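Design job #97: recover the sequence.
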């Protein structure tokens, strides 16, 4: 069992400790799931997480508030048990984040379904020519009076192909670059919205390139105001970037756990690995990185929950540090496992593949450095 002493840190309340205990017991009984069909596995996971009540935390209707500490605790715990379960939970939150923060009551009706596990959601921001450079979005939304017409492409869209609803960021053209974007809620069955390509990656999950061919979207589906799309996207990422760090932390804790078990049980040169000082050096580094990442993540989450208008700097620090350090922690775990560490299907081998994308999506490590530097200089 992973170290739980962090739950006594002052960032947490009793409700968080109760949530953690409930989820830990659910995850121990239900995870990991079979990953051989990731589409079906994600649909099943969303249904199960919805039924068990955990998806209630993934969104917030008017009068409610997203609790970032709960989101982080859930992602950390799920990731420790099963990366795909974390993914399924995370997408329900990211995909509806703009609705939780800026949606009208009518638009928020989607949350009833996504939080019950009856609909899947996706966040459609990236395009072939705008991954890190969000202000360069080209997908156009033309104002036609009572509706908009969307044309263009989105790519690297997680849950693409299985989502029931997409949050789509498009160019409405009020001004150049960042000030000319708007956000829309677009049902997956909208005419003209097609899955152009399914994308396969080293730790598979549902992922696709989408094409919008004259997709008609009612004006009432615009989230927030025309031209506010960039700030809406950034506000959503301010909440969810800390949770990406939390998922990385879950992977790192699992890698540390596996390493401790290995170091205590495997003998080398007539004694357990754990007695070798070089192994102890690695374990010290791993434990330190895990605790430091947890401090940054829950600092960011707590700051947001306490009412900070923006946690751009805190969230960027949490994501950057936790994901980069988790990669190092897992690499050490692989090293200490020797041949077993690179054997297909071993736990540390799958962690090694799972962690890599977290240093890229929702703002690559390099982008987080830009964000931190700008915030520090301002
Ligand atoms: N919250 C609210 N507003 C924000 C904000 C935030 N976190 N970040 C920026 N803004 C505002 C700025 O204040 C600025 O508004 P004003 O001109 O009124 O001051 C506006 O948005 C434009 O910001 P900025 O000039 O910083 O935009 P840039 O084009 O330089 O882009 C980066 C900034 C690179 C940080 C942004 O494009 C980014 O985060 N890229 C990574 C995208 C990403 O995460 N992609 C993954 C997709 S999801 S898998």
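Job complete. Output follows.
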């Amino acid at each position: 069992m992973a170290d739980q002493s962090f739950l006594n840190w002052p960032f947490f309340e009793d409700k968080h400790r109760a949530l953690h205990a409930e989820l830990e017991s659910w995850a121990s009984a239900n995870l990991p799931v079979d990953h051989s069909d990731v589409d079906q596995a994600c649909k099943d996971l969303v249904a199960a997480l919805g039924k068990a009540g955990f998806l209630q935390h993934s969104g917030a209707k008017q009068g409610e508030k997203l609790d970032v500490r709960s989101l982080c605790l859930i992602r950390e715990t799920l990731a420790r048990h099963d990366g795909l379960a974390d993914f399924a939970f995370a997408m329900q939150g990211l995909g509806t984040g703009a609705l939780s923060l800026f949606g009208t009551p009518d638009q928020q009706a989607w949350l009833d379904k996504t939080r019950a596990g009856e609909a899947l959601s996706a966040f459609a921001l990236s395009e072939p020519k705008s991954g890190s450079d969000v202000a360069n979005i080209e997908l156009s939304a033309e104002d036609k009076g009572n509706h908009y017409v969307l044309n263009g492409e989105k790519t690297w869209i997680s849950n693409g192909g299985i989502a029931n609803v997409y949050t789509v960021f498009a160019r409405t053209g009020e001004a150049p670059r960042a000030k000319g974007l708007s956000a829309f809620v677009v049902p997956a069955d909208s005419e003209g919205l097609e899955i152009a390509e399914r994308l396969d990656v080293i730790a598979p999950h549902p992922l696709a390139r989408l094409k919008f061919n004259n997709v008609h979207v009612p004006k009432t589906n615009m989230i927030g105001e025309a031209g506010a799309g960039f700030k809406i996207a950034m506000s959503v990422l301010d909440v969810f970037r800390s949770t990406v760090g939390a998922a990385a932390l879950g992977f790192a804790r699992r890698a540390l756990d596996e390493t401790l078990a290995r170091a205590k049980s495997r003998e080398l040169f007539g004694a357990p690995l754990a007695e070798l000082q070089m192994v102890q050096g690695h374990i010290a580094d791993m434990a330190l990185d895990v605790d430091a990442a947890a401090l940054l993540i829950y600092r960011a989450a707590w700051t947001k929950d306490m009412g900070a208008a923006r946690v751009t700097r805190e969230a960027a620090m949490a994501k950057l540090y936790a994901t980069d350090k988790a990669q190092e922690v897992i690499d050490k775990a692989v090293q200490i496992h020797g041949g077993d560490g690179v054997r297909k299907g071993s736990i540390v081998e799958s962690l090694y593949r799972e962690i890599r994308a977290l240093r890229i999506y929702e703002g690559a490590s390099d982008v987080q450095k830009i964000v931190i530097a700008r915030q520090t200089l301002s």
